[in-house]
Amino acid sequence: MSGIFRVICVTLLAAYGAAGGWVVAAQAQTEPQTTKPQTTKPLVTSLGPDFPKSEIFIGNSFYYYNNGLPSHVSLLERAADPEHRQDYRATMVTIGGSGLDWHDVESYFRPNGIGAYSFDDQNNVVFNPPGKMFDAAVMMDCSQCPIHPKLKPAFTEFTKKDSDIVRAHGAKPIFFMSWAYADKPEMTAPLAEAYTVAGNANNALVIPAGLAFARAREKQPELNLYAPDKRHPSLAGTYLAACTTFAALTGRSPVGNSYYAGVDEPTAKFLQQTAWDTVQDYYGK
Asked: What's the rounded Cα separation, in Å, for the pair 92 and 94?
């Protein structure tokens, strides 16, 4: 195990996808995807001046593909702030196919539990100081839950419930806006609206990863952001989501960051710029 973060992956069904359905292999499509203006504007547009440095990411397989989105976020943070690289860490708690209603968020904050130790750059175990383990919790529902007729009431219920739990433990709740499927670009606008409304209702920042996917596909439709199942991210998709998350969490631009996650340099630079432009537009800056 590498990195300074602890990854906890609970896989309920090996072939189960983030949407709660069976994964069917197919080639990802690259038709352009229009980014529609937000109907609802986000009220929370920054985490500053006290930007978080330790996060727990709560979600599903959209997080854990490609060695985990949180690991790439931490590496971007450390590359941007090498003098304080040891201060950044991320922990991931994922259940394949899960919505927020599957997660026992209260238990994730128990003393001497998740986040009690992590790993440094040399894979040494580091025991973290007792007390508050995380500055923020980045939460994502299942890929259809916020807009599914039978599941969106649970999205509303658990975004509030989990936000209250996170705040009770001294951390900031944050919502991660997921992306549309490769062959269902029409999911983008309703997902963006649902997450923005939930963010406003709970005074929480929303990370506009879904809008970043839409922007990238519109500008470079030939770039594949998806795994063959058309839902989970390719490495480029994970890197784009990580750059968007980095920009939202830190308030810094990922443009020029030296960490490319194994993506070729021209593509990485395009994704960095796309992430920054998306965050700036979404937050109205």
From this structure: 6
Query: What is the DSSP annotation of 143-158?
Result: SSGGG-TTTHHHHHHH
CA distance 219 to 100: 32
Considering the domain boundaries, does residue 217 fall inside one?
A: yes
Q: How far apart are CA 152 and CA 133, in angstroms?
A: 30
Helix (H) or strand (E) holding 196: helix 188-201
Domain count for the chain:
1
55 forms bridges with which residues in the sheet? Answer: 90, 136
Q: Rounded distance, CA 184 to CA 147, Å?
A: 13
Q: Could you check whether the bond before residue 49 is cis, i.e. omega within 30 degrees of 0?
A: yes
Q: Determine the Cα–Cα distance for residues 204 and 156; give it in Å rounded to an integer.
A: 13
Which tokens go with 3?
């990195």
CA distance 25 to 228: 5
Question: What's the CATH number where 115 sits?
Answer: 3.40.50.1110
Task: Give me the amino acid identity at 88.
Answer: Y
Whole-angstrom Cα distance, residue 75 to residue 57? 15
Assess if residue 166 is contained within a domain.
yes
20: which 2 tokens?
A: 């709660």
168/5 Cα distance (integer angstroms): 23
How many beta carbons lie within 10 A of that of residue 226, not counting itself? 23
Position 160 in a domain: yes
For residue 115, give both structure tokens: 């986040």
**Range(s) of the domain holding residue 218:** 7-282
Whole-prediction pTM: 0.86
Give pLDDT tens digits for 227-278. Answer: 999 999 999 999 999 999 999 999 999 999 999 999 999 999 999 999 999 9
2, part of any domain: no
